[in-house]
Amino acid sequence: GAPAISIFLKPPGVISLGGSTTICCGCQRDSGNVVLYRNGQQIRTLQLRGSQAEFAIANATQEDTGAYSCHCRDGDTVLARSESLDVRVEEFRLPRPVLSVWPGHEVAAGAHVMFRCAIAHANASCFLHVEGQVNPYLILKDQDYFNFSCVHKGHEGRYSCQCFTKNRSFKWSAVSRSLDLVVR
């Protein structure tokens, strides 16, 4: 069968104007190339290293905004295509949120875990990101936490949050410091 391919941002979230990020493409192969596309246009090719290719974006501008995807290739043959990853570049206008986890960074399987994303802004909603996952969890503005009622090994990872407000346009915060969750 065709190899699976993944795409994610490291660190996850909206990128600050002038900031940097890395687009990570993983392909279940030891050799070959990964081609990065933005809005359907080929922009870069890298050789796989340990089944992954990392494309750096430095000094981000609005031109870096778009829908990105990766193709895993062996010569001219496309072996797999990733899902699309929407990348946004914005000027940060909100304070940086603070992420905390209760009862702690290390928990037993089956435990109840609460991530709290605190920001000094009354009308902000936030996204809880997990590094390596494309889709974040949404924390609505009338609550500042996200609960996992029965954690398992699949919940392990590096978490961060980023907040926004939406009136006429979106205003974004920087991404919080990250926290690692370990499930025993």
Automatic annotation (TrEMBL):
It comes from the Eukaryota. It holds the Pfam family ig. InterPro entries: Ig-like_dom, Ig-like_dom_sf, Ig-like_fold, Ig-like_Receptors_ImmuneReg, Ig_sub, Immunoglobulin_dom. Keywords: Disulfide bond, Immunoglobulin domain, Signal. One of its GO terms (biological process) is immune response-regulating signaling pathway. The keyword Zinc does not apply. Residues 3-86 form the Ig-like domain. PANTHER family: MHC CLASS I NK CELL RECEPTOR, OSTEOCLAST-ASSOCIATED IMMUNOGLOBULIN-LIKE RECEPTOR. This is IGSF1 protein. It comes from Cochlearius cochlearius (Boat-billed heron). The gene is Igsf1.
